[in-house]
Amino acid sequence: MLARSGAETAAISAAALLGALVLFGAFVALRGLSPLEVYAALFLGAFGTWFSIEQTLTQAAPLMLTGLCTALPARAGLLVIGGEGALVVGGVATVLVGATLAGWPPPLAVALMCMTGALAGGLWIGAAGALRHWRGVNETICTLLLNYIAIAVMNHLVTGPIRDFAQVLKPASWSIGERLMIGELPGTSVHWGLAFGVVACLLTWGLMRHTTFGFAVDILGGNVRAAQMAGLPIGAMVLATCFVGGAAAGLAGTIEIVAVHGFASSSLVVGYGYAGILVAFLARQNPLAVVFVAILLGGISASGGLLQRRFGLPDAATLVLRGLLFVAVLAGNTLYGRFKIFRPPAA
Amino acid sequence: MTEAPPAVEVLGMTKRFGDLLALDGVSLALAPGSFHAVLGENGAGKSTLVKCIMGYHRPDAGRVLVGGREWAIGNPRQAHRLGFGMVYQHFTLVPSMTVAENLVLGAEDLPAVIRWDEERAKIDAFQRRMPFAIDPARPVATLAAGEKQKLEILKQLFLGRRILILDEPTSVLTPDEADQILKAMRELTEEHRLTVVLITHKFREALGFAREVTVLRAGRRVGGGLVKDLTRDDLARMMIGSASIPDPAARQATASRAIGLEVESLNVLNDKGTVAVRDASLRVHAGEIVGVAGVSGNGQRELVEVLARQREPASGAIRVGGAVYARTRAEMRRHRVFVLTDEPLRNACVRTMSVAENLAFRNFDDRRNTIGGWLVSRRALRAQARALIERYRIRTPGPQARLETLSGGNVQRTVLARELSEDVAVLIAQNPCAGLDFAATAEIRARIMGARNAGAAVLLISEDLDELLELADRIVVMFEGRLVHETSRETADAHTIGHYMASQP
Amino acid sequence: MPPATDLGWWGVVIAVLGGAARVSTPYLFVSLGETLTEKSGRVNLGLEGTLVMGAMSAYAVAYLSGSPWLGVLVAGAAGAAFGLLHGGVSTLPRVNDIAVGIALFLLGTGLAFYLGKPFIEPVAPRLPHVALGAWSASPQIRAALEVNALFVVGAVLAPLLLWGLGHTRWGLVVRTAGDNADAAKALGYSVGAVRTLSTMAGGFLAGVGGSFLSLYYPGTWNEGLSSGQGLMAIALVIFARWNPIHCFWVSLLFGGATALGPALQSVGIASNYYLYGAAPYVLTLILLIASSSPRHALAGAPSELTISK
């Protein structure tokens, strides 16, 4: 049964991916490009060389964490799309704390920054969960608004209160300093953030799949009235899933600071949060699947540069492909249960 | 409304859903001005028959003749044009709109731009010729159930429909309201202004108002004729056939007088924020069934929701076994409180989870179903499911099948197995047999009675007065959120209770 | 009257009022469109993407054809196309309309950035305006009271929509689909089709609202043109209780809030520019919280709506 429903998910997801690629092919064909060459470039840019694989994995790291930000609350029945804002908040909080830790031993300082980022992101999305549960505020609209608020607050901070005027290219915050930056995984140019992402997905998968908490969350997500009737602590569960999801996205912000930028700026706002929504949907809210889907979407992002160089396609081409993929995935939802071969055999 | 309805003949209607033959060559003749009851229990094919006539289903075989001519009815609009109108069990009114808006809504010739002064004049003229009338300016949301049902019928007549199909129209009405509406329908047929087809499972309505009757069982016509030639026993025999009905649940004397469930001065708001349950107090003793009678929509749903923790009370106290009951999972377990609701898919199950998982909602975190207290043991859940599937005869491909792949009756059995398999001290049951056939109904009633006999305090909320009269030790009547009447089993009388349900003591 | 060059704090007030009329136009169109869509029982959360797509297509067409009004029309058509996509996919069983909205939000912005790349540099003709401030000698007042023709169209559209919902067959059918899908089915209407058409009409209006951004104010096309106006307009519908006239007034309020930052900057208070930029989002959030209730559904919401369940 499990294998069958897994096969159904894999088949329908693959069909959605195929459908999106076909649409995208038709789309680039309108420009007079050969779809096959574009597909080849997509693959080459994503997985074709060791270098492109490294790029893909680097992109995938934050996507795993922002994917969890949508996937975990979704298991409790909430449609949270605040990964972008939680990432920004986590990044800014990391800088605020990290800039004061100059003399600390790096491992301790990094651990502290990770906790700070996770806590900030967790509280940010947790607040949306609390508003949902105790005020009935629609969490989707609320978290989307929180994205814009987070970005506005960050822009305010990096252009004023915490601006580092030594940075001339664009307004940026104080730096945490080279000493506190984490490096790459041994033998690669992929930073440690990937390990953080994979571990976070594995841990949450175990939590959701095997614990009584995960079982209770599945009841809640499947039917809130059934969860109420079973006497489950719904407010606490909503809060917990939102907090953990937000913490994951906040941690993604920390990683962007400690592994990539070293400071907060508009470079944090590159759409990892929004791509994470697609990751969660494509993974059907399964944290283990999030790992693989994030790598797939990381590949699409990573190949953007090659598409631009080779075909002169705007960098937004990958956004179009992602959007098409999202629509195809949702349309694919209608196919579940339609195919007899995926049904369990009658006993 | 001067024109008489045309004669209608339905010939050899057959409809298959997958492997199930839902309707098997059923024919029906409706002379102008006839009042024809289609009688049958749930699943007998009554709704399928009328849905085929109305064009909702495409029949696999069968013809409809209207005015002697054959018509292919492909959708409800074509049926409407031929004069067919349907009144459903559930209201099809638009609550946010006014009575007038609801009346004109279905008009075939509704102009693109509506001139409300003209429409209003038409409505007023129409209502003067009708046996009942409703203020056209009122929003439908403010109407009582009886008024809504009248409006449903008025709407069909206003739209010029001459052949009215009433699908269990009285399920939301008090007995008096039902009589009033059916009597008015009967008069309209006697004046040959209307043909009525009444879909029902109530003998009383078929015998009391119809002139002809057709009885369906398992998709076939098994009997019928003129009502005046038939008795209640005839109809019952046709309806139930040779299927053996389990004996009525035996009531045993119970000794304990301890209070199981107590509700004191409970006030509850509904979704719109208005008071649905008003100052309700009641006690249910161990080994006793207290029935709550009332027409649907008088606060029963909100009362059950509060007891099932699906709604927060505005004020008041709930006690179980003498202790304050905050409805936490720990308390539910300690006091062994269980709930059977109607619409189990909406209220008590997760359709995308497996049968085994659904059976474990009450005890997945019990020591015996976990490893170390916090890891769920799927093996233990499967073993539990296999035992319950066998004991409660749940028809499922296996414990791992998704609940949504089960039939409605088996979903109900799944919930029953979950809520009644353990030692029950307090049971809250709401319309537990709604939508089930005779055999399943009898079985569930027997199990509820069994729980009572074993010492459970049972609060049974039902819209079916016969069910309450059969099972309850005491009956209270709920009207507009208040408990307005209480009677013991010995003194209970359907007529009096019916009056209190309409609050006309 | 103080000298024209030094209106001081009055300048802020006038700028906010003028800005309200100016900035509110996209809010107005999007919220009217979303009101219509939600009245039919669907939520289109993707109107932010539609808005950006409308802005881009309007700008591109106005530049290529030289006619801003043709640009407006094409923007509407693009919005309707997105509405068709939303409606079509959401009509499939087991597909959540809110999720489809999010997908189209992302697809719309992505597509607009992709197709709009070549149009960031060129200058397109702008939409005309009505000079309500012609009486004044002060250029600040005159600038503040230039009202765009589309604003006037929107202001007329609001009562028209209210009338249409109550006095036309289509209005009744749309409301029926939004309040009781079974009733609409019983009447023989296809609920999916009614909702898809309503989403298309809503998308058309949102697209037109987008054209205002690129063809009038701010009056250019770039990738940072809209930052959540489409989304806020959707939240605004909840606060306006699905009433088109309320949409008009609340749009003005939002326009004023958005205009606050630039207005303060114009009198030299620029230090907290980004913080004022957050004002409309914070205002939206506060209004959203105020409109919600944990105990019962959103007041005035069509009962088939997914966000009110």
Tell me about this structure.
The complex is a heterotrimer of chains A (about 350), B (about 500) and C (about 300). Chain A has about 350 residues and is mainly α. In chain A, about 70% of the residues lie in helices and about 0% in strands. In chain A, helix 3 (about 50-75) crosses helix 11, helix 4 (about 85-100) runs parallel beside helix 6 (about 140-160) and helix 4 (about 85-100) packs across helix 10. The radius of gyration of chain A is 21 Å and the shape is globular. Chain A starts with a helix and ends in a 15-residue tail after the last helix. Chain B has about 500 residues and is of the alpha/beta class. Chain B folds into 3 domains: about 10-240, Rossmann fold (3-Layer(aba) Sandwich); about 250-335 and about 425-505, 3-Layer(aba) Sandwich (Rossmann fold), CATH 3.40.50.300; about 350-420, no CATH class. In chain B, strands 6-7-8-3-9-10 form a 6-stranded mixed sheet, with helices on both faces. In chain B, strands 16-19-20-13-21-22 form a 6-stranded mixed sheet, sandwiched between helices. The mean pLDDT of chain B is about 90. Helices cover about 70% and strands about 0% of the residues of chain C. Residues about 1-5 of chain C have low confidence and may be disordered. Chains in contact: A-B, A-C, B-C. Chains A and C meet through helix 5, helix 6, helix 11 and helix 14 of A and helix 4, helix 10, helix 12 and helix 13 of C.
Largest sheet descriptor of chain C: 2 strands, antiparallel
- Number of distinct helices of chain A: 14
Q: Which segments of chain A are poorly predicted (pLDDT under 50) over 5 or more consecutive residues?
A: none
CATH class of chain A: Mainly Alpha
Number of strands of chain A: 2
* Class by alpha and beta content of chain C: mainly alpha
- Given the C-alpha coordinates, what overall shape of chain A results? globular
Radius of gyration of chain A: 21 Å
SSE order and pairing:
The complex is a heterotrimer of chains A (347), B (505) and C (309).
Chain A: H1 2-29, H2 35-48, H3 50-75, H4 83-98, H5 106-135, H6 139-159, E1 172-175, H7 193-210, H8 212-222, H9 224-229, H10 234-261, E2 263-265, H11 272-282, H12 287-302, H13 304-311, H14 317-332
Antiparallel strand pairs in A: 1-2
Helix pairs in contact in A: 1-2, 1-14, 2-3, 2-12, 2-13, 3-7, 3-10, 3-11, 3-12, 4-5, 4-6, 4-10, 4-11, 5-6, 5-10, 7-8, 7-12, 8-10, 11-12, 11-14
Chain B: E1 8-17, E2 20-30, E3 35-39, H1 46-54, E4 61-66, E5 69-71, H2 76-81, E6 84-87, H3 99-105, H4 116-128, H5 145-158, E7 163-167, H6 175-190, E8 195-200, H7 203-209, E9 212-217, E10 220-226, H8 232-240, E11 259-269, E12 275-285, E13 288-293, H9 300-307, E14 315-320, E15 323-324, H10 329-335, E16 337-340, H11 344-347, H12 355-359, E17 370-371, E18 375-376, H13 378-391, H14 408-420, E19 426-430, H15 438-453, E20 457-461, H16 465-471, E21 474-479, E22 482-488, H17 494-501
Parallel strand pairs in B: 3-8, 3-9, 6-7, 7-8, 13-20, 13-21, 16-19, 19-20
Antiparallel strand pairs in B: 1-2, 1-4, 4-5, 9-10, 11-12, 11-14, 14-15, 17-18, 21-22
Helix pairs in contact in B: 3-5
Chain C: H1 9-39, H2 47-65, H3 68-91, H4 97-116, E1 129-131, H5 139-144, E2 146-148, H6 149-167, H7 169-179, H8 181-186, H9 191-215, H10 229-239, H11 244-266, H12 273-277, H13 279-291
Antiparallel strand pairs in C: 1-2
